[in-house]
Design brief:
single chain; rod-shaped; 3 helices
Length: 144
């Protein structure tokens, strides 16, 4: 019995570690927010390499009318939140006497749950000079 418990415990901790590792990878790939753009991008200082390290590959790369390289990041996310509430009441009865035992139970409950979804978008446009450093950037985010 102890061996079975140890195996179950090891398996559950391994799956929790795998979940945490996957979760951390997802978080690092999803760092494009309005605040991160403001903190990371500095005109004349931030290089293309630093932008790639912070936000990953852009969705679109092009040149503007002045010949400056322009990168566009466009991210969308669906955020789902759910909640539930409820109660339950139960009663367990038991009796034993002599060589006879008996028991019974009664219970009831109620629960409610709700789910909501929010769509979030973030667009970041970055212009680079001939020295591969940021010359201008604009960001826009929305939530609905």
């Amino acid at each position: 019995m102890r061996i079975l418990f140890a195996i179950a415990l090891a398996a559950s901790s391994a799956s929790v570690e795998a979940f945490a590792k996957d979760r951390n990878q997802d978080d690092s790939a999803n760092t494009l927010t309005h605040g991160m753009a403001q903190m990371t991008l500095h005109v004349g200082l931030t290089t293309q390499t630093e932008v790639l390290e912070a936000f990953g590959s852009p969705n679109i790369t092009t040149l503007d009318a002045q010949g400056q390289e322009v990168w566009v990041y466009d991210r969308q996310a669906t955020v789902t939140s759910s909640g539930s509430s409820g109660f339950s009441i139960g009663m367990l009865l038991g009796a034993a006497g002599g060589n006879v035992g008996g028991g019974g139970g009664l219970g009831f409950g109620s629960s409610k749950s709700r789910t909501s979804q929010t769509q979030r978008t973030m667009t970041l446009i970055i212009k680079f000079g001939s020295d591969k450093k940021v010359t201008d950037f604009k960001s826009r985010s929305s939530s609905f």
